[in-house]
Amino acid sequence: MSSSDDTGVSDTSQQLDEFLNDIKAKYDALENKSQVGIYGGGALAVLWLSSAVIGAVNRLPLVLKVLELVGLFYTGWFVYRYLLFKSNKREL
């Protein structure tokens, strides 16, 4: 490894240490630590549930094609509405 690789690794390591120390300081400053666990568990439950719903919708062949058409129509509308004319570009 060259010295530039070593400095890149040490910079990344230093940034990671600073990030972890910042997170630890913020966690230590919290008054209600159990609330963090409740919110974290809730976030994981929502992530799992949304993954299950997306997987179920993905297995339905008709819904997949309808959603693809909706996406294409919306993309076309967005391009026409905001990107095609110069006056609308400023609005965006």
From TrEMBL:
UniProt cross-references to Pfam families, sorted A to Z: CAAD
Superkingdom of the organism of origin: Eukaryota
Q: Name one GO cellular component term.
A: chloroplast thylakoid membrane
Name of the featured protein: Cyanobacterial aminoacyl-tRNA synthetase CAAD domain-containing protein
Q: How does it sit in the membrane?
A: Multi-pass membrane protein
Any idea where the Cyanobacterial aminoacyl-tRNA synthetase CAAD domain is? 22-92
Q: Which InterPro entries match?
A: CAAD_dom (IPR025564), CURT1 (IPR033344)
This protein's UniProt keywords: Membrane, Transmembrane, Transmembrane helix
Q: Does the keyword Iron-sulfur apply?
A: no
The record lists the membrane-crossing segments as 36-56, 62-83
Question: Where does the record say this protein resides?
Answer: Membrane
Record flagged with keyword Transmembrane helix: yes
